[in-house]
Amino acid sequence: MKKIENFGSIAGRELLRRIYKDLRYDKQRGAISSLFATWRLAVGNIEVQKYVGDDVQVLHSIGMLKGTSLWLEEIFNRFFFSTINSFVYFGAAILLVIVGIRRFSDSVSDRLVIYGIIFEAALLMLMFFIMLFTPNDEISDSDSSGETSQDQDEIISEIGEIGRDFATATLQLEEISAKISDMLVTQNETIERMNSIAESTIQMSLPNPNLIEIMRGTNAILSEFNDKIKLLMSAVEKIRAEEIRSAVRAELETILLAKYRDNEQQEK
How far apart (Å, rounded) are the C-alpha atoms in residues 136 and 8? Predict the structure, then answer.
C-alpha cells in the first residue's frame, strides 16, 4: 500500500489532481460534484480508497484553511481558470458594447453603464483572488510549469489590454458626461430664450394701456364735438327759419304795400 503523508506533498497534490480527472472525465461526474468531492478530500476526508482503484493511504489531514488553499491551487485554479478568464472577457465585451451604445445613443442610461463597470470589476476581483492561488512552479512538472508561466504571461498581457480598455472607456464616459453637461446648459439657455420670446409675443398681442386711454379720450372729444355739431346745426336751422320768415314777411309787406298804393291810385 502506497502511503502519502498529506495532500500538501508533491505526491498528494498529484493524487488530488488525478482523483479530480478520474471523477470528472472517466466517471463523468458533474463539475460541481467533482469540485465538492476533491474539496472534502483536501480539507479533512483522507479516505481516498473509494475514489481511486489502487491502494493509497493518506496519513494526515492539513486542515480547513490549508486544505482549501491547496484545493484552490491544484483544482480550481488549474481546471477553472480559463472559465473565469472567459467570464472576464465576456464582462469586458458587455461593458464595451454598453459604453459604445451610450456614446451614440441615449437609450442606455448612466446607471446601466455603472452596473456594467461594477460587474466587470467584480469579475476582475474574482480573477485576482484565483490568481493568488496559482500553483507553485517549483512543485509542478517542468512541462506544466512552462505552460503555466506562458499562461501567466498571456493573462498579464490580457489584463493589461483590459486595463487599457477600461481607461479608454473611462475617458469616453468623462467626455459623454461633459457633453451632457453642455447640452443641459444649452437647453436651459434655449428654454430661457423661448420664455422671453413668449412673453414678448404676449405683450405684443395685448393692446397698450396708454393707447387705450388716448383712444378713450379721443372718443370722448369726438362725442362732445358731435354734440356741438348737432347744436350748431340746430342753431343754423333756427337761423335759416328766421331768415325765411323775415324774407317772407318782407315780401308780404312789399306786396301788401304795393296793393295799397294801387288801391289809393285807383280811388284818386
Answer: 12
